Known about the structure:
This protein is mainly alpha-helical. The protein contains nine helices and no strands. α2 (24-31) crosses α3.
Amino acid sequence: MAADIDLHLGRRLRRRRRLLGLTQQQLAVQVGIRFQQIQKYECGANRISAARLWRLAEALETSVAYFYDGLAEALDEATPAAAPREVFSRKETLDLIQAYYQLDERPRRRLLDLAKSLNTDEAPA
């Protein structure tokens, strides 16, 4: 059974890889390992060594600290803040974020304004 920290690191690895639009194979080639190893890291079956975590962070254009963000909350299951973080692990959320950032600035602002207007509790005047 995977340790909680290994699961957290694996989730963060998967999230960042998907956010950048990389496949497991593409990331594995950049790091010099097989894609099956990326799969094992992402599901928490294998632990990520410090040296490998460093290489993964470089390949994913982030800091090593990124992988540990939210770890305290993730380890404390009683924390209500842990539940909203799960929404970012959904593929639909990541697809939406990618599509959003592919837009130019003006359409992005308009889309954001539209989303905010749909989430209002106020009745139209």
